[in-house]
Write a structure and sequence with these properties.
The chain has 216 residues and is an alpha/beta fold. The chain is built from six helices and eight strands; from the N terminus they run αααβαβαββαββββ.
Length: 216
């Protein structure tokens, strides 16, 4: 129901494919996050897409979770954020069958995907139901700021890099071979793997910055 070609407009012009995931990846993310959140009976589910690119998942979340849902995107690239805002407000974003459907709130902000400032994205700690991470990380420590925004019981999906010794030789610079893993925030505030998560193989752009306590 979403006009995928609209969200790929700038990418088709520049050839820079790193800003958008494949349809299979998008379907997997929404199936894992939106469906699981809806099953909990939440009336106003809030989603944060950290590294949102052109904003496709924000619209997918809004369609899946209804008119009381909230979807917030965060990306460091000002041009991409501008494109995302334009695509989400476009009358061509949805096909005719869905154009009259009431959508939830959707916002896109400029900022560091791994270290969002709560006030800048209008979120409080413990207020987010689901987080998608659009950058690969080497350690869960890189996700501490996002974890703080997640409520206990909330879900987070992130690409976690394999160790350096497990990286294939053909992985391009700036990317890593990893596994797309689903976590839940425990009552103690820790991310724990969701039982039965198949950890999908993936290659993602690698975050180029470490959290402050990991810098040397």
């Amino acid at each position: 129901h979403i006009n995928k070609w609209l969200f790929m407009g700038d990418i088709m012009k520049t050839g820079e494919l790193e800003h958008v995931g494949g349809p299979g990846t998008h379907l997997y993310i929404i199936q894992k996050l939106a469906v699981a959140t809806a099953a909990k009976g939440l009336s106003q589910p809030t989603f944060l897409d950290a590294g949102c690119g052109p904003g496709y998942l924000l619209l997918a979340w809004s369609l899946a979770c209804g008119d009381e849902s909230n979807a917030i995107g965060l990306d460091l690239d000002k041009a991409i954020v501008g494109s995302a805002r334009r695509y989400l407000s476009s009358p061509e974003a949805l096909d005719e069958e869905k154009k009259e459907e009431d959508l939830g709130s959707m916002e896109v902000h400029i900022g560091d995907a791994l270290r969002p400032q709560p006030q800048a994205v209008d979120l409080e700690e413990g207020s987010v139901d689901a987080v998608n991470v659009g950058l690969a990380v080497k350690s869960l420590k890189h996700l501490s700021a996002l974890t703080s925004l997640l409520r206990p019981g909330g879900l987070l999906l992130a690409p976690i890099c394999l160790s350096d010794s497990e990286q294939p030789d053909d992985v391009p610079a700036g990317r890593c071979e990893g596994r797309l893993r689903l976590f839940q925030k425990s009552d103690e505030g820790q991310l724990v793997r969701v039982p039965g998560d198949p950890e999908i193989p993936c290659r993602f752009i690698l975050s180029d910055s470490d959290p402050p306590n990991l810098r040397r």
